[in-house]
Amino acid sequence: MINLVDLRRQFQSVKKEILQEMNDVIESGQYIMGPKVMELEMKIAKRLGVSEAIAVANGTDALVLTLEAYGIGKGDEVITTPFTFFASAEAISRVGAVPVFADVDPITFNINPNEIERKITPATKAIIPVHIFGQPADMDDINEIAKKYELKVIEDACQAFGASFKDQPVGSLGDVACFSFFPTKNLGTMGDGGIITTCDSALATTIRKLRTHGTTKKYFHDRIGYNSRLDELHAAILLVNLTKIDDWNSKRRVLAERYRKYLNHVTHLKMPVEGKYRTHIYHLFCIESEQREEIMNALINAQIQTGVYYPRCLHLQDVYSFLQYKKGDFPVAEYLSERLFAIPMHPFLTEGEQDKIISILRQDGGR
Ligand SMILES: *Cc1c(COP(=O)(O)O)cnc(C)c1O
Protein backbone atom coordinates (compact mmCIF):
# COMPACT_ATOMS: atom_id res chain seq x y z
CA MET A 1 0.00 0.00 0.00
CA ILE A 2 1.27 3.49 -0.85
CA ASN A 3 -0.02 5.75 1.89
CA LEU A 4 -1.03 9.40 1.83
CA VAL A 5 1.57 10.01 4.54
CA ASP A 6 4.15 7.61 5.93
CA LEU A 7 4.95 8.52 9.51
CA ARG A 8 6.77 5.27 10.14
CA ARG A 9 9.34 6.16 7.48
CA GLN A 10 9.56 9.73 8.70
CA PHE A 11 10.28 8.80 12.31
CA GLN A 12 12.58 5.97 11.27
CA SER A 13 14.73 8.55 9.48
CA VAL A 14 15.22 10.56 12.69
CA LYS A 15 14.88 7.77 15.24
CA LYS A 16 18.45 7.93 16.55
CA GLU A 17 18.35 11.66 17.17
CA ILE A 18 14.90 11.49 18.72
CA LEU A 19 15.85 8.67 21.05
CA GLN A 20 18.85 10.70 22.21
CA GLU A 21 16.69 13.77 22.82
CA MET A 22 14.04 11.71 24.61
CA ASN A 23 16.70 10.09 26.71
CA ASP A 24 17.89 13.55 27.79
CA VAL A 25 14.37 14.37 28.89
CA ILE A 26 13.97 11.09 30.76
CA GLU A 27 17.25 11.68 32.57
CA SER A 28 16.39 15.30 33.38
CA GLY A 29 13.34 14.45 35.49
CA GLN A 30 11.58 17.56 34.07
CA TYR A 31 8.57 16.57 32.01
CA ILE A 32 6.38 19.67 31.95
CA MET A 33 7.49 23.18 30.98
CA GLY A 34 11.17 22.37 31.04
CA PRO A 35 14.12 23.55 28.96
CA LYS A 36 13.06 21.74 25.75
CA VAL A 37 9.77 23.65 25.59
CA MET A 38 11.63 26.91 26.15
CA GLU A 39 14.18 26.04 23.50
CA LEU A 40 11.47 25.11 21.00
CA GLU A 41 9.60 28.37 21.66
CA MET A 42 12.78 30.37 21.24
CA LYS A 43 13.83 28.62 18.05
CA ILE A 44 10.43 28.91 16.39
CA ALA A 45 10.10 32.59 17.35
CA LYS A 46 13.57 33.29 15.95
CA ARG A 47 12.88 31.37 12.75
CA LEU A 48 9.66 33.26 12.09
CA GLY A 49 11.08 36.61 13.16
CA VAL A 50 8.50 37.16 15.90
CA SER A 51 9.12 38.06 19.51
CA GLU A 52 6.82 35.49 21.13
CA ALA A 53 6.04 31.80 20.76
CA ILE A 54 3.84 29.97 23.24
CA ALA A 55 3.69 26.17 23.02
CA VAL A 56 0.31 24.63 23.82
CA ALA A 57 -1.36 21.21 23.86
CA ASN A 58 -2.67 21.21 20.26
CA GLY A 59 -3.62 23.41 17.33
CA THR A 60 -7.25 23.69 18.35
CA ASP A 61 -6.27 25.01 21.78
CA ALA A 62 -3.89 27.42 20.08
CA LEU A 63 -6.93 28.96 18.33
CA VAL A 64 -9.16 28.83 21.42
CA LEU A 65 -6.59 30.42 23.74
CA THR A 66 -5.81 33.12 21.17
CA LEU A 67 -9.48 34.04 20.70
CA GLU A 68 -10.05 34.07 24.45
CA ALA A 69 -6.93 36.14 25.08
CA TYR A 70 -8.34 38.76 22.70
CA GLY A 71 -11.53 38.78 24.76
CA ILE A 72 -13.56 37.43 21.84
CA GLY A 73 -16.72 35.65 22.97
CA LYS A 74 -20.49 35.95 23.23
CA GLY A 75 -21.99 38.45 20.81
CA ASP A 76 -18.88 38.58 18.64
CA GLU A 77 -18.41 37.35 15.10
CA VAL A 78 -15.26 35.93 13.53
CA ILE A 79 -14.92 35.48 9.77
CA THR A 80 -13.33 32.33 8.44
CA THR A 81 -13.45 29.91 5.52
CA PRO A 82 -16.06 27.16 5.13
CA PHE A 83 -13.41 25.05 3.38
CA THR A 84 -11.13 23.92 6.20
CA PHE A 85 -10.81 21.39 8.98
CA PHE A 86 -13.63 21.76 11.51
CA ALA A 87 -11.34 23.07 14.31
CA SER A 88 -10.96 26.48 12.61
CA ALA A 89 -14.66 27.19 13.22
CA GLU A 90 -15.02 25.03 16.32
CA ALA A 91 -12.56 27.26 18.21
CA ILE A 92 -14.74 30.29 17.41
CA SER A 93 -17.82 28.50 18.74
CA ARG A 94 -15.88 27.20 21.75
CA VAL A 95 -15.32 30.74 23.05
CA GLY A 96 -18.99 31.60 22.49
CA ALA A 97 -18.58 33.67 19.33
CA VAL A 98 -20.22 33.00 15.96
CA PRO A 99 -18.29 31.77 12.94
CA VAL A 100 -19.23 33.75 9.83
CA PHE A 101 -18.13 32.10 6.62
CA ALA A 102 -16.78 33.74 3.46
CA ASP A 103 -16.29 31.81 0.24
CA VAL A 104 -12.89 30.78 -1.08
CA ASP A 105 -10.81 31.48 -4.16
CA PRO A 106 -11.10 28.74 -6.83
CA ILE A 107 -7.35 28.79 -7.58
CA THR A 108 -5.72 28.78 -4.13
CA PHE A 109 -8.72 27.34 -2.20
CA ASN A 110 -8.09 30.07 0.39
CA ILE A 111 -10.57 32.57 1.78
CA ASN A 112 -11.41 35.22 -0.82
CA PRO A 113 -10.69 38.75 0.50
CA ASN A 114 -13.57 40.25 -1.55
CA GLU A 115 -15.99 37.89 0.15
CA ILE A 116 -14.63 38.79 3.60
CA GLU A 117 -15.47 42.46 3.24
CA ARG A 118 -19.12 41.72 2.48
CA LYS A 119 -19.42 39.73 5.72
CA ILE A 120 -18.19 42.42 8.10
CA THR A 121 -20.73 43.75 10.63
CA PRO A 122 -20.34 45.85 13.80
CA ALA A 123 -19.99 42.54 15.70
CA THR A 124 -17.00 41.34 13.67
CA LYS A 125 -13.84 41.13 15.77
CA ALA A 126 -11.37 39.02 13.82
CA ILE A 127 -10.58 37.14 10.62
CA ILE A 128 -9.11 33.64 10.64
CA PRO A 129 -7.54 32.90 7.26
CA VAL A 130 -6.44 29.27 6.95
CA HIS A 131 -3.37 28.49 4.84
CA ILE A 132 -5.14 25.51 3.38
CA PHE A 133 -3.15 22.42 2.30
CA GLY A 134 0.08 24.38 2.91
CA GLN A 135 -0.60 27.34 0.61
CA PRO A 136 -0.67 30.81 2.22
CA ALA A 137 -3.84 32.90 2.00
CA ASP A 138 -3.80 36.31 0.31
CA MET A 139 -2.36 38.05 3.35
CA ASP A 140 -1.85 41.53 1.85
CA ASP A 141 -5.52 42.00 1.02
CA ILE A 142 -6.65 40.36 4.27
CA ASN A 143 -4.41 42.60 6.39
CA GLU A 144 -5.62 45.65 4.48
CA ILE A 145 -9.27 44.84 5.18
CA ALA A 146 -8.44 44.10 8.83
CA LYS A 147 -6.72 47.45 9.18
CA LYS A 148 -9.62 49.31 7.60
CA TYR A 149 -12.19 47.75 9.96
CA GLU A 150 -9.89 47.36 13.01
CA LEU A 151 -10.07 43.59 13.09
CA LYS A 152 -7.51 41.09 14.37
CA VAL A 153 -5.96 38.67 11.90
CA ILE A 154 -5.40 35.20 13.36
CA GLU A 155 -3.54 32.93 10.93
CA ASP A 156 -4.58 29.29 11.11
CA ALA A 157 -1.19 28.00 10.01
CA CYS A 158 -1.82 24.43 11.19
CA GLN A 159 -1.13 23.01 7.72
CA ALA A 160 1.64 25.34 6.64
CA PHE A 161 4.79 25.42 8.77
CA GLY A 162 7.55 26.75 6.51
CA ALA A 163 5.29 28.21 3.82
CA SER A 164 5.70 31.87 2.94
CA PHE A 165 3.99 34.85 1.36
CA LYS A 166 6.24 37.44 -0.33
CA ASP A 167 9.18 35.70 1.35
CA GLN A 168 7.69 36.27 4.80
CA PRO A 169 7.01 33.07 6.74
CA VAL A 170 3.46 32.13 7.67
CA GLY A 171 3.17 32.65 11.39
CA SER A 172 4.47 36.20 11.03
CA LEU A 173 1.91 37.56 8.58
CA GLY A 174 -1.03 38.54 10.78
CA ASP A 175 -1.43 39.70 14.39
CA VAL A 176 -0.97 36.19 15.69
CA ALA A 177 -0.74 32.65 14.29
CA CYS A 178 -1.64 29.14 15.39
CA PHE A 179 0.20 25.95 14.46
CA SER A 180 -0.56 22.27 15.09
CA PHE A 181 2.01 19.54 15.65
CA PHE A 182 -0.47 16.69 15.13
CA PRO A 183 1.56 13.75 13.73
CA THR A 184 0.36 14.07 10.12
CA LYS A 185 1.01 17.82 9.87
CA ASN A 186 4.14 18.65 7.89
CA LEU A 187 5.87 19.54 11.18
CA GLY A 188 4.48 17.04 13.67
CA THR A 189 5.27 15.12 16.80
CA MET A 190 4.27 11.63 18.00
CA GLY A 191 1.16 12.95 19.66
CA ASP A 192 -0.64 16.27 20.05
CA GLY A 193 0.98 19.66 20.19
CA GLY A 194 0.67 23.23 18.99
CA ILE A 195 2.21 26.69 19.18
CA ILE A 196 1.08 30.31 18.97
CA THR A 197 3.36 32.96 17.46
CA THR A 198 3.00 36.73 17.72
CA CYS A 199 4.81 40.04 18.18
CA ASP A 200 2.15 41.23 20.64
CA SER A 201 3.74 40.75 24.05
CA ALA A 202 0.61 41.67 26.01
CA LEU A 203 -1.34 39.02 24.10
CA ALA A 204 1.45 36.49 24.72
CA THR A 205 1.36 37.20 28.47
CA THR A 206 -2.39 36.54 28.56
CA ILE A 207 -2.01 33.34 26.52
CA ARG A 208 0.76 32.09 28.84
CA LYS A 209 -1.55 32.71 31.76
CA LEU A 210 -4.46 30.89 30.10
CA ARG A 211 -2.16 27.97 29.27
CA THR A 212 -1.64 27.18 32.96
CA HIS A 213 -4.90 27.69 34.84
CA GLY A 214 -4.88 31.50 34.75
CA THR A 215 -1.84 31.54 36.99
CA THR A 216 0.10 34.69 37.75
CA LYS A 217 2.36 32.94 40.23
CA LYS A 218 2.16 29.29 41.29
CA TYR A 219 -1.10 28.70 43.22
CA PHE A 220 -2.30 32.27 42.61
CA HIS A 221 -4.96 32.64 39.91
CA ASP A 222 -6.57 35.74 38.49
CA ARG A 223 -8.72 34.17 35.79
CA ILE A 224 -10.16 30.83 34.69
CA GLY A 225 -7.74 29.21 32.33
CA TYR A 226 -6.87 25.86 30.82
CA ASN A 227 -4.37 23.09 31.22
CA SER A 228 -2.92 23.32 27.73
CA ARG A 229 0.81 22.76 27.74
CA LEU A 230 3.14 21.02 25.34
CA ASP A 231 4.91 18.07 26.98
CA GLU A 232 8.67 18.20 27.30
CA LEU A 233 8.99 14.92 25.36
CA HIS A 234 7.06 16.36 22.43
CA ALA A 235 9.19 19.51 22.48
CA ALA A 236 12.27 17.27 22.34
CA ILE A 237 10.91 15.40 19.30
CA LEU A 238 9.93 18.66 17.62
CA LEU A 239 13.41 20.11 18.14
CA VAL A 240 14.73 17.27 15.99
CA ASN A 241 12.02 17.59 13.35
CA LEU A 242 12.54 21.35 13.22
CA THR A 243 16.08 20.77 11.95
CA LYS A 244 14.62 18.67 9.09
CA ILE A 245 11.57 20.67 8.14
CA ASP A 246 13.16 22.76 5.37
CA ASP A 247 14.53 19.63 3.74
CA TRP A 248 11.19 17.85 4.13
CA ASN A 249 9.26 20.80 2.71
CA SER A 250 11.57 21.09 -0.28
CA LYS A 251 11.16 17.37 -0.96
CA ARG A 252 7.39 17.92 -0.99
CA ARG A 253 7.85 20.75 -3.49
CA VAL A 254 10.01 18.61 -5.75
CA LEU A 255 7.41 15.82 -5.69
CA ALA A 256 4.67 18.37 -6.43
CA GLU A 257 6.58 19.64 -9.46
CA ARG A 258 6.98 16.06 -10.65
CA TYR A 259 3.27 15.33 -10.29
CA ARG A 260 2.53 18.47 -12.29
CA LYS A 261 5.09 17.65 -14.97
CA TYR A 262 3.55 14.25 -15.68
CA LEU A 263 -0.12 15.00 -15.00
CA ASN A 264 -0.63 18.57 -16.22
CA HIS A 265 -1.95 17.44 -19.59
CA VAL A 266 -4.31 14.75 -18.37
CA THR A 267 -7.63 16.21 -19.42
CA HIS A 268 -9.74 14.91 -16.53
CA LEU A 269 -7.41 16.19 -13.84
CA LYS A 270 -6.66 19.69 -12.63
CA MET A 271 -3.43 20.09 -10.70
CA PRO A 272 -3.13 22.48 -7.73
CA VAL A 273 -1.89 25.95 -8.68
CA GLU A 274 0.48 28.15 -6.70
CA GLY A 275 -0.92 31.65 -6.26
CA LYS A 276 1.19 34.76 -6.83
CA TYR A 277 3.88 35.54 -4.19
CA ARG A 278 3.36 32.23 -2.39
CA THR A 279 5.57 29.32 -1.42
CA HIS A 280 3.30 26.31 -1.02
CA ILE A 281 4.63 23.45 1.12
CA TYR A 282 2.08 20.82 0.01
CA HIS A 283 0.89 19.54 3.35
CA LEU A 284 -1.62 17.87 1.02
CA PHE A 285 -1.58 17.48 -2.76
CA CYS A 286 -5.19 17.78 -3.86
CA ILE A 287 -6.30 17.26 -7.45
CA GLU A 288 -9.60 18.41 -8.91
CA SER A 289 -11.70 16.10 -11.08
CA GLU A 290 -15.27 15.63 -12.27
CA GLN A 291 -14.68 11.88 -11.99
CA ARG A 292 -13.43 11.77 -8.44
CA GLU A 293 -15.14 8.54 -7.40
CA GLU A 294 -13.96 6.61 -10.43
CA ILE A 295 -10.38 7.81 -10.17
CA MET A 296 -10.19 7.21 -6.43
CA ASN A 297 -11.45 3.67 -6.98
CA ALA A 298 -8.79 3.01 -9.59
CA LEU A 299 -6.13 4.22 -7.15
CA ILE A 300 -7.49 2.17 -4.27
CA ASN A 301 -7.57 -0.93 -6.49
CA ALA A 302 -3.88 -0.32 -7.24
CA GLN A 303 -3.13 -0.16 -3.48
CA ILE A 304 -2.77 3.62 -3.46
CA GLN A 305 -4.39 5.49 -0.60
CA THR A 306 -6.47 8.58 -1.32
CA GLY A 307 -8.51 10.98 0.79
CA VAL A 308 -11.11 13.70 0.47
CA TYR A 309 -10.32 17.03 2.12
CA TYR A 310 -13.03 18.06 2.87
CA PRO A 311 -16.17 16.17 1.87
CA ARG A 312 -18.56 18.57 3.65
CA CYS A 313 -18.12 22.33 3.93
CA LEU A 314 -18.43 23.72 7.44
CA HIS A 315 -21.56 25.82 6.70
CA LEU A 316 -23.36 22.57 5.80
CA GLN A 317 -22.32 20.63 8.91
CA ASP A 318 -25.24 19.43 11.04
CA VAL A 319 -23.88 21.17 14.12
CA TYR A 320 -24.08 24.53 12.31
CA SER A 321 -27.63 24.12 11.03
CA PHE A 322 -28.66 26.79 13.57
CA LEU A 323 -26.65 29.32 11.55
CA GLN A 324 -29.16 28.73 8.72
CA TYR A 325 -26.77 28.49 5.85
CA LYS A 326 -27.91 26.44 2.87
CA LYS A 327 -26.43 24.63 -0.08
CA GLY A 328 -25.44 27.19 -2.71
CA ASP A 329 -24.33 29.84 -0.20
CA PHE A 330 -20.64 29.22 -0.93
CA PRO A 331 -20.52 27.81 -4.45
CA VAL A 332 -16.72 27.70 -4.78
CA ALA A 333 -16.16 25.85 -1.49
CA GLU A 334 -19.00 23.45 -2.36
CA TYR A 335 -17.62 22.87 -5.83
CA LEU A 336 -14.22 21.98 -4.35
CA SER A 337 -15.71 19.70 -1.70
CA GLU A 338 -17.35 17.70 -4.49
CA ARG A 339 -14.28 17.44 -6.73
CA LEU A 340 -11.00 17.52 -4.80
CA PHE A 341 -9.13 14.44 -3.68
CA ALA A 342 -5.67 13.98 -2.19
CA ILE A 343 -2.99 11.65 -3.52
CA PRO A 344 0.10 10.52 -1.58
CA MET A 345 2.42 13.40 -0.65
CA HIS A 346 5.15 13.20 1.96
CA PRO A 347 8.94 13.66 2.01
CA PHE A 348 9.58 9.91 2.01
CA LEU A 349 7.53 9.05 -1.07
CA THR A 350 9.94 7.49 -3.56
CA GLU A 351 10.08 8.32 -7.26
CA GLY A 352 9.17 4.70 -7.97
CA GLU A 353 6.04 4.97 -5.87
CA GLN A 354 5.21 8.30 -7.44
CA ASP A 355 5.64 6.80 -10.92
CA LYS A 356 3.13 4.12 -10.05
CA ILE A 357 0.60 6.71 -8.87
CA ILE A 358 1.20 8.78 -12.01
CA SER A 359 0.71 5.78 -14.31
CA ILE A 360 -2.64 4.93 -12.73
CA LEU A 361 -3.80 8.52 -13.01
CA ARG A 362 -2.72 8.79 -16.63
CA GLN A 363 -4.52 5.61 -17.62
CA ASP A 364 -7.67 6.85 -16.01
CA GLY A 365 -7.44 10.30 -17.53
CA GLY A 366 -6.92 8.85 -21.02
CA ARG A 367 -9.93 6.55 -20.88
C1 LIG B 1 -5.10 20.19 12.22
C2 LIG B 1 -5.78 21.49 12.12
C3 LIG B 1 -6.27 22.17 13.24
C4 LIG B 1 -6.28 21.59 14.61
O1 LIG B 1 -5.06 21.14 15.10
P1 LIG B 1 -5.03 20.01 16.23
O2 LIG B 1 -3.61 20.00 16.68
O3 LIG B 1 -5.45 18.73 15.60
O4 LIG B 1 -5.94 20.42 17.32
C5 LIG B 1 -6.83 23.42 13.05
N1 LIG B 1 -6.93 23.96 11.83
C6 LIG B 1 -6.49 23.33 10.72
C7 LIG B 1 -6.61 24.00 9.40
C8 LIG B 1 -5.92 22.06 10.83
O5 LIG B 1 -5.51 21.44 9.72
UniProtKB/TrEMBL annotation:
Keywords: Aminotransferase, Pyridoxal phosphate, Transferase. GO terms for biological process: polysaccharide biosynthetic process. SUPFAM superfamilies: PLP-dependent transferases (SSF53383). The active site is at 185 (proton acceptor). Coiled coil: none annotated. The modification N6-(pyridoxal phosphate)lysine is found at residue 185. GO terms for molecular function: pyridoxal phosphate binding; transaminase activity. Gene3D superfamilies: Aspartate Aminotransferase, domain 1 (3.90.1150.10), Type I PLP-dependent aspartate aminotransferase-like (Major domain) (3.40.640.10). Belongs to the DegT/DnrJ/EryC1 family. This is DegT/DnrJ/EryC1/StrS family aminotransferase.
